[in-house]
Amino acid sequence: QLAFLLMIILLGFTQQVKADWPVGKHRWILTPSYTYSQSTKFFNADRQVENSPFNGKFSSHTMSLYGVVGIGRKTDLVFNVPFASVTSQNVLDKFTHAGVGDTYVGFNFHTPSKDLKKYFTVKVGAIIPLYSNTTEPYLGLGSKGFFIGSNYSFNVKKKTFAIIEGMFTRYIDQQDGPNKLNVNLIYGMELPKSNLLIFTLNHENSYSADKTFTAN
User: How far apart (Å, rounded) are the C-alpha atoms in residues 123 and 166?
Assistant: First the structure.
């Protein structure tokens, strides 16, 4: 899978880079992003990677709006609203579907160290699909869900930060899941003029008792 992520911070506040630390009471950050993904392979029921039949290819363009609102010195409200356009095609057919995708809203609860240089954060929230899977290709699983996770964030050295994070996601509309477990390793550094350079390594394990094949 090929993914390209472009992120621009539109509105924030002036202070030292503080990783996933609280934004502060009555402060907020609004971040738009664009993601492009493409894949010519899929996982079969035996968890093996196969080429899509008939030279098949799946691609998506997603514009997202991510926000953080400080409702207390240690508590933030977070949300993300994506608008996606997905295309599934092969030598025989081509189908495209666009709309608002899986929106999430939740809370981050931060616990600082005594010197305020390290933070332990707990995250909880809900996933709300703002679409119905009636037109292929689907914009997503189409299931409500919830997530819970935690991370540890700290400054590696001046103008740099790191985050170690684990996240569990459960989709609840289907009895057989799926359940997802994510582990994220993030390293970031501050560049001139308040720009950020961020590297992310993500591992995801997704499990469902339903192993029937679907083109979606």
Answer: 10
What is the rounded distance in angstroms from the CA atom of residue 198 to the CA atom of residue 20? 12
- Mean pLDDT calculated for residue range 163-172: 95
Q: Hey, what's the torsion of the CAs at 99, 30, 181, 126, to 10 degrees?
A: -70
**d(Cα 86, Cα 158) in Å, to the nearest integer?**
41
Residue in the block written with tokens 């909880």: 124
Q: What is the pLDDT of residues 106-123, one digit of tens each?
A: 999 999 998 888 999 999
- Is it the case that residue 7 has pLDDT exceeding 60? no
> Which stretches of 20-56 are assigned E, i.e. beta strand?
28-39, 41-43, 49-51
Q: Do 172 and 143 touch, CB atoms closer than 8 A?
A: yes
CB atoms within 10 A of CB 189: 16
Query: DSSP 3-state assignment of 105?
Result: strand
Kind of pairing, strands 94-100 and 75-89?
antiparallel
- Residue-by-residue DSSP string for 171-197: E-SSTT--EEEEEEEEEEEEEGGGEEE
